[in-house]
């Protein structure tokens, strides 16, 4: 049997209200005649009738649909598993959702659909070409983005400092070019910094990531007054991990960017590194 949406039912109801026969409207929109007749007689839609049995409220599902649409427009379409995980967190319920929850969610929200993802060519990611830059500004024009104050729009990234023997002493490089680090002598030490600035020129105190099992006091000068508020951590290779990215979010970004009004939205712009899009 052909599946029909609530939107199609509403279109059929409008046709009947405009003088079309029930049978003709049902045939036009692919809706069973008894179903359309019952709706005209006052029967509620399945979504409304079973709303009390849904895990999420209709308002929560509407907000979730808006989030999916915005993420897709930004190039980060969530997977089914990510949708399930977010819904579970909204509910605050450790119990897993039903096996068919995603299918039923999509049926209740026809504006959302499953599509095959398409990998973006590396040249589109790394090349600063006009069409890529234009696409970036198109994303900034999305209503969900334009409604956020410049003071609440933030951009974070990482940079690396390679310390060791050599004429330059310190070498700056992007954290994305990690293969460079492997070519250096074993005596060199890699340190990463996560930095963040806002659209109106504010900057956050950084998170510094050392290479090691734990942060050691001997790495710091005796006078730490110039580093008040900085956060320090360590990883096995001095690079960002899922755990350090989450630590930065919780200890640096969230407390340092708290808006004046609690209901004001914040935007965090970041690249596609795996630690930036982990489940947490």
TrEMBL record:
UniProt key word Transmembrane: no
Pfam families to which the protein is assigned, alphabetical: DDE_1, HTH_psq, HTH_Tnp_Tc5
Location (main, coarse): nucleus
Claim: Nucleus is one of the keywords in the record: yes
HTH CENPB-type domain sequence ranges: 48-115
Stored SMART domains: CENPB
Keywords: DNA-binding, Nucleus
GO molecular function term, any single one: DNA binding
A GO cellular component entry from the record: nucleus
Compartments where located: Nucleus
PANTHER family per UniProt: POGO TRANSPOSABLE ELEMENT WITH KRAB DOMAIN, TRANSPOSON
Identification of the protein by name: Transposase
Organism: Colletotrichum higginsianum (strain IMI 349063)
Lineage: Eukaryota, Fungi, Dikarya, Ascomycota, Pezizomycotina
